[in-house]
Design brief:
The chain is mainly alpha-helical and about 230 residues long. The protein has a domain at about 35-160: Vaccinia Virus protein VP39 (Rossmann fold), CATH 3.40.50. Helices cover about 50% and strands about 5% of the residues. The protein has helices at about 5-15, 25-30, 40-50, 60-65, 70-80, 100-110, 120-130, 165-175, 185-195, 210-230, and strands at about 90-95, 110-115, 140. Strands 1-2-3 form a three-stranded parallel beta sheet. Helix 4 (about 60-65) packs antiparallel against helix 6. The longest helix has 20 residues, at about 210-230.
Length: about 230
């Protein structure tokens, strides 16, 4: 087969190697392995502000590790709705760096297990938890939430967000209060913002590199992926 034929076959079949992953699990791992919020970044920020990392307290992590829309206020709403209290056994699916896990354990006295798919984020979550001394009540384990690695009846509650609840937060705080968050990919939320404000939302993406940098990186990934297919 010629190089041109191999290239045509690759494009027509839609197979992307390494940088273009078709499997949903692989796509998730690829994204979160490159997520702009990581254990290393959080610790670097704390080291810069404190001068050292000795004696870290859980509340010092909270401004940095709540990687979900609504922040601590949303977690508190969720905890109240799920009646989380001292001794409650809670599971947090897709736990990320464990921010919610540690918060529920620290503030509410719950015994919390977080389940996270990405190994790098599991190890990062465990490191952050260890540094603030919450290992006994806040655990993050590697697993797929489609096949939960927990025994039956081992938890009391698994809090979750619903669109109806989010709309009540819009009513309470004003929808523009949430504009900077990355939630507007949900069609119902985006439509509600447009209805109330009269324009599309503008989430804060200052954490992302400038678009020329992203374009160059994307171009390099395309080049190397094609090169691997063309050159034996």
């Amino acid at each position: 087969m010629t190089a041109a034929a191999r290239s045509t076959d690759w494009v027509s079949s839609g197979r992307f190697e390494a940088n273009f992953l078709s499997d949903a699990t692989s796509q998730t791992l690829y994204f979160y392995n490159r997520h702009p919020i990581s254990c290393e970044i959080i610790l670097a920020k704390l080291r810069a502000s404190r001068g050292h990392l000795d004696g870290l307290r859980p509340e010092e992590l909270f401004p940095h590790d709540q990687d979900h829309y609504g922040g601590l206020a949303a977690t508190d709403e969720l905890a109240r709705g799920a009646q989380v209290s001292n001794g409650s056994r809670v599971a947090d699916f897709c736990a990320g760096l464990g921010g919610t896990v540690r918060y529920l354990a620290h503030k509410y006295g719950a015994d919390v297990t977080g389940i996270e798919l990405t190994p790098a984020r599991v190890s990062g979550a465990q490191e952050l938890t260890r540094r603030v001394g919450l290992q006994s009540t806040a655990r993050i384990v590697e697993g797929n939430v489609m096949d939960v690695p927990l025994p039956d009846a081992s938890i009391d509650s698994q809090p979750s967000w619903q669109e109806a609840e989010i709309f009540t937060w819009f009513d309470r705080h004003g929808i523009e209060f949430f504009e900077g968050l990355e939630i507007w990919h949900v069609p119902a939320l985006r439509a509600e913002f447009r209805r109330r404000v009269g324009r599309s939302p503008r989430p804060d993406r200052s954490y992302m590199p400038a678009w020329p940098v992203r374009a160059r990186r994307f171009g390099k990934r395309v080049f190397h992926a094609v090169k691997r297919r063309i050159i034996p």
